[in-house]
Specification:
The complex is a heterodimer of chains A (720) and B (233). With 720 residues, chain A is mainly α. Helices cover 62% and strands 1% of the residues of chain A. Chain A has a two-stranded antiparallel ribbon with strand order 1-2. Chain B is elongated, with a radius of gyration of 22 Å. Classes of the chains: A mainly alpha (720), B alpha+beta (233).
């Protein structure tokens, strides 16, 4: 055969032409390839030219391309990496997304043949396939339509089938695939859909036929990426410097309680958060407070207006109590002025609104909010949210195919290596939470046990131990699916360890030296705040709880009650009193502690005192998955709202009295409780969640420091 | 099958100080990273290892920023090192007009291209199955899933890829070869026997002198490094 003349080319493109059988085509291509080494590049260049065609291929072109690719598949052993470089680079640039199925198949066949023929091309082929994980930019948008989704399925099914085909021919190929896939992961600053698609492919690899070899690296790589996104969501400027001034409520009821986007609650939430951050509240300067309170009045007026409007819109009870909540928060810092103002407000609830637009600026320097991180944080939060949702779906599919146990082991190892020691990881840990929720008996228990062992074993560094116990406490408190018996057994172990520690350390309170001990005590108290009720309900567990030697620990020289977080301590003591723990001769052993002063923080720079990892997730999509398994503090509190709470001397309050709470009424009743408690009621127990809610501020700040007119496109008033 | 050898090696495993709590696990992990990689010092791909002894008490601590400590080990190793003209056996995974793809020992991929398949074999498609059938012996066929014996042309150490050939007469489907071994000429068979016996003795020798051979190769490596340095200077 010689040079393909013009006439021959036309025949070449007709598939039915009997003159050119497959064998002849292959021979032709082979000759063309070998001719290059002799210097004759004509036919070869022509071949390469066929491969370059991309735009608007007519059927003839398609047939030509397909034939070329098929012929090349039959001659892979003649392809030399040096002489035929332009051919290889032309093939490398071809993306499956641009072509129809016939060409896709031919291209895949070529790639697989190349990979199997020569060790040099294995990495090349794998990289080429990995490049096809995401479509080219111009096709990204079309993915949202159905035709795009169809195309995506066609391409990805072929790509993954190609991986399997290569693995059959070259058994060591999957080993080489893992590092390639991980290296090519899109960075966190890439577009959301691109990352999502790539991660989707990684998860598909993990559950695919070569998942045994490749899967071990996929999940940890994804978790690493999640952490990277997580830490980019800044909580700058809002972290409390010390344990005072913890005023964040659990706003999850306000925001998520009803799905129809209650915009007003959001705005309320925002304003309350902002108000609580006012610096003068921390420094307690009297004149400052007055000025602030004046402005607070303005806010309250606005809030009432909003509440009125909201009532009109949705027919619910007005939220006047919201204003009270704000003011009552202020009271704890400066009682005299606050109380007088508050009494005024309680009387007069028909106030007019005149809110100052610059209000928030007085709270904190605006510059701090316009930090780039927080502005960008919103898109990163969305990416993180979608990725976590994707991981949840993958975990669900693992569970239905019965693989969850092995996948969980990998996840747990990854957790121990990255999430546990990541400083204040915010949402990534919910991946583990959800996996436990899907399989409480196996994974749920395993997680708790691993954390407990990490805390109890003294070979681990102190930070790891403190972090582990914080995770343990938050997990056991928040996981609805964890049995009370498990909680009791773990409590027992913790108590025993703490007691042992006390007995072997006869020294006074020292924050740094005994930080592991203090974190253990705080974990104990935190867990009991949430779980006391369920433990007391079961008689056997109640006996176990009453027999636990907690009193000597709490009364020891090391004085954990003074060191641990005051909110936790106070709530714990109150519940303990109501449950009649620590009763020595008719009086509560810790009566004086109920009015303990604010403690000094412990932990120094590491700040593990305010670390409750499984506080409500702020990412919307992920939260909807977590919600059925997640225990809300307000729900628990409401269940026990009627006892111990209101009666200061309370000892006759019955623990069994459950208030039947309707979801929608939860908020209102919560408010009612707090108001009825009187003005000197101690800090609202919704503060069991300590973590600041920056998300609202992100939204808020994007409105350029105007009072939020629209956080969600809902019933928010434009009246400002 | 040729190409497999058992050898004894004395190695030193250098471990990070953080691993000093559980040395045996760390050593196992280090050794596992050797598996399925070609080691020049050992002259072969490590397929399996068995620790004979490790001397915990005499680990030497290296001086440096990170004080790694070296634990001396004595290992039995199963090595795979195919050399040209060796005969290997593997399972056929793919047949095409152009090539036969084989997997050896479950991990090493081998390819026999058309030009290395002797004229006797012809590619056919029978009953929708791809087959290489022998022209001279009707029953001698090679299909997907059959075990075949082939000779090694070359070995790519990085990707553990073998280039094989079916030119020699005593290569082909093992099933048929075993059955019809008398058809192969007497002399060639005897020659092959002699070869294989010789190889057995060398294998044994290797096992005993494995220590020396590994040292030798280490010395060779050092020598070549020296030579390189001399050349450069």
């Amino acid at each position: 055969m010689g040079r393909v003349s013009g006439a021959e080319k036309q025949e070449f493109s007709e598939m039915e032409n009997a003159e050119f059988s497959d064998l002849q085509l292959i021979c032709h291509v082979r000759d063309a390839l070998s001719a290059v080494t002799l210097g004759d590049r004509e036919n070869y260049d022509e071949l390469v030219g066929y491969l370059h065609r991309k735009e608007s291929l007519n059927p003839d072109d398609i047939a030509l391309l397909e034939t070329t690719l098929k012929a090349l598949s039959g001659t892979v052993s003649c392809i030399d990496s040096v002489h035929h470089e332009s051919l290889l680079s032309a093939v490398y640039r071809m993306s499956l997304w641009n072509y129809g199925t016939s060409i896709m198949d031919a291209l895949i066949e070529l790639i697989v043949s190349l990979a199997a023929s020569n060790g040099k091309y294995i990495d090349w082929s794998l990289e080429l396939l990995v490049n096809n994980f995401t479509p080219p930019y111009h096709l990204m948008d079309s993915l949202k339509q159905e035709s795009g989704i169809e195309k995506k399925n066609k391409v990805l099914s072929r790509v993954h089938a190609a991986f399997e085909a290569i693995a059959v021919l070259v058994p060591l190929a999957p080993l080489r695939l893992s590092p390639i896939v991980v290296q090519r992961m899109p960075l966190i600053y890439s577009k959301g859909p691109e990352i999502l698609m790539y991660v989707e492919n990684m998860l598909k690899l993990e559950s695919g036929a070569i998942g045994e070899i490749v899967g071990v690296t996929m999940l940890p790589a994804i978790v690493d990426r999640l952490i990277e996104l997580d830490v980019e969501i800044g909580w700058d400027g809002l972290l409390q410097e010390d344990a005072k001034g913890i005023f964040e409520m659990e706003l999850e009821d306000a925001e998520f309680a009803d799905g129809d986007g209650d915009g007003d609650d959001n705005m309320v939430g925002v304003s309350i958060v902002i108000l609580s951050e006012h610096p003068c509240m921390l420094t307690c300067q009297a004149d400052c407070i007055q000025a602030w309170l004046d402005q607070a009045v303005g806010v309250v007026k606005w809030l009432c207006e909003v509440a009125k409007l909201h009532m009109v819109n949705s027919g619910k009870r007005p939220r006047k109590q919201l204003g009270h909540r704000v003011i009552s928060s202020a009271i704890n810092y400066n009682s005299q002025e606050g109380k007088s103002l508050c009494s005024k407000l309680v009387v007069d609830s028909q106030l007019t609104v005149n809110f100052s637009a610059n209000f928030c600026v007085n709270c904190k320097p605006a510059a701090e909010y316009l930090n780039r991180k927080t502005l960008e944080g919103n898109t990163i939060a969305e990416k993180l949210d979608s990725l976590i949702e994707l991981t949840f779906l993958h975990l669900e599919s693992c569970q239905s195919s019965g693989r969850l146990s092995e996948v969980f082991d990998v996840l747990l190892r990854s957790f121990q290596r990255t999430i546990l020691n990541a400083y204040k990881s915010k949402f990534t840990q919910f991946v583990v939470f959800y996996a436990c929720a899907l399989d409480p008996e196996d994974c749920g228990v395993k997680f708790a046990m691993v954390l407990t062992d990490m805390f109890l074993s003294n070979v681990n560094p102190p930070n790891t131990r403190m972090s582990a116990v914080a995770y343990l406490a938050s997990y056991l408190s928040r996981a609805k699916f964890v049995s009370a018996a498990l909680v009791a057994s773990i409590l027992q172990r913790l108590v025993d360890w703490c007691l042992n520690y006390c007995q072997s350390h006869d020294s006074v309170m020292n924050l740094r030296a005994h930080q592991v001990f203090y974190s253990g005590c705080q974990a104990l108290m935190y867990m009991l705040c949430f779980r006391m009720r369920s433990l007391m309900d079961a008689p056997r567990l109640k006996m176990q709880l009453l027999n636990m030697p907690m009193e000597p620990i709490l009364q020891h020289k090391l004085n954990p009650l003074k060191v641990c977080l005051p909110t936790v301590v106070v709530e714990f003591l109150r519940q303990a009193k109501a449950a009649k723990l620590f009763m020595t001769s008719e009086s509560f052993a810790f009566d004086d502690m109920l009015e303990s002063d604010l403690s000094r923080a412990f932990g120094g720079i590491d700040r593990l005192d305010a670390f409750f990892p499984f506080d409500p997730c702020l990412l919307k999509k992920s939260e909807s998955y977590i919600r059925p398994h997640f225990a809300r503090w307000s729900k628990i509190k409401c269940d026990g709202a009627n006892d111990g709470d209101l009666s200061e001397s309370g000892s006759d309050a019955s623990d069994d009295e459950f208030v039947d709470m309707n979801e929608n009424d939860m908020i209102e009743d919560d408010m009612t409780v707090s108001v009825q408690a009187g003005l000197d009621f101690d800090p609202d127990l919704n503060r069991m969640s300590i973590t600041p809610k920056n998300k609202f501020l992100l939204h808020f700040q994007q409105q350029n420091a105007r009072m939020p007119a629209r956080i969600r496109p809902s019933t928010s008033p434009e009246s400002l | 099958m040729e190409g497999l050898k058992l050898s004894n090696a004395n190695l030193t495993a250098y471990l990070h100080p953080s691993k000093s709590r559980d040395v045996s696990e760390a050593i196992l992990r280090e050794l596992s990273s050797l598996l399925f990689t070609f080691s020049e010092a050992l002259d072969g791909v490590v397929l399996a290892y068995d620790i004979n002894s490790l001397d915990n008490k005499k680990a030497k601590i290296l001086s440096g920023v990170i004080p790694y400590f070296g634990v001396p080990l004595s290992l039995d190793l199963l090595l795979f090192s195919p050399k040209p003209d060796m005969l290997l056996e593997g399972k056929v995974v793919k047949l095409s007009q152009e090539s036969i793809h084989v997997v050896v020992l479950g991990f090493s991929s081998a390819i026999i291209t058309e030009k290395d398949i002797r004229e006797e074999f012809v590619y056919k498609t029978k009953h929708e199955q791809d087959v290489y059938a022998s022209k001279s012996h009707k029953r001698h066929t090679i299909k997907v899933g059959n075990m075949i014996r082939f000779s090694v042309k070359s070995f790519d150490e990085e990707i553990l890829h073998i280039y094989g050939s079916l030119m020699a007469d005593h290569t082909g489907s093992i099933h048929w070869l075993e059955k019809h071994s008398e058809l192969i000429s007497h002399t060639s068979r005897n020659a092959k026997k002699g070869e294989s016996e010789g190889e057995l003795t060398t294998l044994k020798q290797d096992a005993i002198d494995g220590k020396i051979s590994s040292l030798d190769s280490a010395r060779k490596v050092k020598k070549s490094k020296k030579q390189k340095m001399q050349e450069e200077s």
